[in-house]
């Protein structure tokens, strides 16, 4: 009898636990539904970045921008539809990897995230955007520059930064027109970002009257570039352009100088970081790079943001924190105007954004691109990136 009773109790307990588990699973897989209590609504916002690996310094920087915006909103107090709201940042590591990014995207959807800031890289953001689009969840990118991101026909993708086509054109025009480089070699890391940027740059070089003497390829995990650079040395280029990130650009320029090559070195926003200067040391001096946005000095809210950022995180801004901060504010502003955290209600408001951000005026084209996207040019001088105008480059010609 005791055995029968005990077995019955075990069975009943197991059934109850299974029911609870099913209930919990249903709660976590309900898509994009804010969690409400009697006195407060909890609204989850996703922040997707590489938080481990060679690009973690970028990812942490971008995530910090989101965190700061949300902390300020919570401190100020927000009500939507008459109900108090607490915003919660859900940070995930996508490792700058397309496969990992789609897994992160699905976890966001399953956990009830109503919007996403990110992903950091184009290669991660583009595949993830399909999952968000299918779920009706908006994403606002602060660093995605591939033109393909907003060419997919989705109504949920927005970016607050210029694209690679604009960067490639600006860099090529500067290289050929200002630096007088005629023989240009191009290397890319075969990522969506790096290859797309290098393609746009190469086309623009030819259009500007320069010549691409050789194209080479590497990966976004390589550290040895001697074979590639040796093949380029035979072409005697005036300038070498790299489409990729600082983790590879730093060692690359050191090896470039080790081979005795005096060609100018140029990258885009993936190279325009303090980390590049740290990795390459004195060999980085005189390098050129762009930023898909206004110069920091010209950003209307940069000075005060920089002070807040340093006070909160005890570190310097790497690159995209001002943009992800503004991206989070775009989402908050849209929710306030819609008086709702329901993506169906506030996503249409994102397209109508008219916001003064840290990075400048924010409004969107019909496809989700930022209106009047700016591109700025920089040169590494005395270990720091300095903004350039056509007459401020210290090197009169491309040969260094």
What is the H-and-E element order? HEEHEEHEHEEHEHEHEHEHEHHHEEEE
Number of strands: 16
Radius of gyration, in angstroms, nearest whole number: 24 Å
Which residues sit in consecutive blocks of at least 5 with pLDDT less than 50? 1-31, 390-400
Share of helical residues: 40-55%
Structural class: alpha/beta
The average pLDDT value, as a whole number, equals 88
Distance between the termini: 93 Å
Gross morphology: elongated
SS strand fraction = 15-25%
**Main beta sheet strand tally, sense and closure:** 7 strands, mixed
Give me the number of helical elements: 12
Describe this structure in words.
The relative contact order is 0.13. The protein contains 12 helices and 16 strands. The protein starts with a helix and ends in a 13-residue tail after the last strand. Helix content is 43%, strand content 18%. A hairpin with a 4-residue loop joins strand 13 and strand 14. The protein has 400 residues and is an alpha/beta fold. The protein is elongated and about 70 Å long. Strands 1, 2, 3, 4, 5, 6 and 7 form a 7-stranded mixed beta sheet that branches. Helix 2 runs parallel beside helix 11, helix 3 runs parallel beside helix 4 and helix 8 packs parallel to helix 9.
In terms of topology, how is this protein built?
Blueprint: H1 2-29, E1 35-36, E2 41-49, H2 56-76, E3 78-80, E4 83-93, H3 98-110, E5 115-118, H4 122-135, E6 139-141, E7 157-159, H5 164-178, E8 183-188, H6 192-207, E9 211-217, H7 226-233, E10 239-243, H8 246-258, E11 264-266, H9 274-280, E12 288-291, H10 302-313, H11 321-338, H12 343-350, E13 355-356, E14 361-362, E15 376-381, E16 384-387
Helix pairs in contact: 2-11, 3-4, 5-6, 8-9, 11-12
